[in-house]
């Protein structure tokens, strides 16, 4: 599974877009980029995934660079409830290898 | 449509005792995963099942740990002779086992070994 690199922490103002970067330079051609988040004391929550193309769902957008070495998760209008640890994971089907993630603090 | 459920939510046990946790996956999900998470760390993979077959086990899963999914539905994770180092959150996830195979996690079982 691809190893990913994320900043340890980020702040975002409530109502603004949160842009969370992830480097995954060792990702292989058949590995998806997954994003999960974990709110304190809860199980991780699936957000979105992509392979090559940009993706959007009701929670977020995922922008993957053309060379697939990095991606950005975008929360378009962050709320206080989006405060969580965000994990970027490169994987095929099967087990997920979680890193330390990015702690996003949304501030009023 | 209920999500993944885990029982118990909290377990306190004395060192040396055996404990068993249960996970009920989302209905019709073929794959079931177990992870462990200690304070300040991301979840660590332990094992996973495709239906009733255990397909992969992590080296973290010592001989004291055993997992089963006898009928391809719910799963149990047993820890024998618990040690203080086993104190952690034990997370279960399930997935359809198709396509991109996103996993859906339960709330976890918090184990404290005293």
Characterize the structure shown:
The complex is a heterodimer of chains A (108) and B (114). With 108 residues, chain A is an all-beta fold. Helices cover 0% and strands 46% of the residues of chain A. In chain A, the strands form two sheets. Chain A has a five-stranded mixed β-sheet with strand order 1-9-8-3-4, with no helix packed on it. By secondary structure, chain B is mostly beta strands. In chain B, strand 4 and strand 5 (44-50) form a beta hairpin. The A-B interface holds A 32, 34, 42-46, 49, 51, 85, 87, 93-101 and B 4, 33, 35, 41-45, 48, 55-56, 58, 91, 93, 97, 100-108.
Notable traits:
heterodimer, A: 108 residues, mainly beta, five-stranded mixed β-sheet, four-stranded antiparallel β-sheet, B: 114 residues, seven-stranded mixed β-sheet, globular
Radius of gyration of chain A: 13 Å
User: What order do the SSEs of chain A take from the amino end to the carboxyl end, as H and E?
Assistant: EEEEEEEEE
Radius of gyration of chain B: 13 Å
Distance between the termini of chain A: 37 Å
Sheet with the most strands of chain B? 7 strands, mixed
In terms of structural class, how would the helical and strand content of chain A be classed? mainly beta
Overall body shape of chain A: globular
Q: Low-confidence parts of chain B lasting 5 or more residues at pLDDT below 50? A: none
Helix content of chain A: under 10%
Uncertain parts of chain A: none
Work out the helix count of chain B. 0
Number of strands of chain A: 9
- Assembly form of the protein: heterodimer
Structure described in brief:
The complex is a heterodimer of chains A (108) and B (114). Chain A has strands at 9-13, 18-23, 32-38, 45-50, 55-56, 61-64, 70-75, 84-91, 102-107.
Write the layout of secondary structure elements.
The complex is a heterodimer of chains A (108) and B (114).
Chain A: E1 9-13, E2 18-23, E3 32-38, E4 45-50, E5 55-56, E6 61-64, E7 70-75, E8 84-91, E9 102-107
Parallel strand pairs in A: 1-9
Antiparallel strand pairs in A: 2-7, 3-4, 3-8, 5-6, 6-7, 8-9
Chain B: E1 5-7, E2 10-13, E3 19-24, E4 31-37, E5 44-50, E6 53-57, E7 65-68, E8 75-79, E9 88-95, E10 104-105, E11 109-113
Parallel strand pairs in B: 2-11
Antiparallel strand pairs in B: 1-3, 3-8, 4-5, 4-9, 5-6, 7-8, 9-10, 9-11
């Amino acid at each position: 599974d691809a190893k990913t690199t994320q900043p340890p922490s980020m702040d975002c103002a409530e109502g603004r877009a949160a842009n969370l970067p992830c480097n995954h330079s060792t990702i292989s051609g058949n590995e998806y980029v997954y994003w999960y988040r974990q709110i304190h004391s809860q199980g991780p929550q699936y957000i979105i995934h992509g392979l090559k193309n940009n993706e959007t769902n009701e929670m977020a957008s995922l922008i993957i660079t053309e060379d697939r070495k990095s991606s950005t998760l975008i929360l378009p209008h962050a709320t206080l409830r989006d405060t969580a640890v965000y994990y970027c994971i490169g994987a095929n089907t099967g087990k997920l290898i979680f890193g330390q993630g990015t702690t996003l603090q949304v501030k009023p | 449509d209920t999500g993944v459920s885990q029982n118990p939510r909290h377990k306190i046990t004395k060192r040396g005792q055996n404990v068993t946790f249960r996970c009920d996956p989302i209905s019709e999900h073929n794959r079931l995963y177990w992870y462990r998470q200690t304070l300040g760390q991301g979840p660590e993979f332990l094992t996973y099942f495709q239906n009733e077959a255990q397909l992969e086990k992590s080296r973290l899963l010592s001989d004291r740990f055993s997992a089963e999914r006898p009928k391809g539905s719910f799963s149990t994770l047993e820890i024998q002779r618990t040690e203080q180092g086993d104190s952690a959150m034990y997370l279960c996830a399930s997935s359809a086992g198709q396509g991109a195979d996103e996993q859906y996690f339960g709330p976890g079982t918090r184990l404290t070994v005293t």
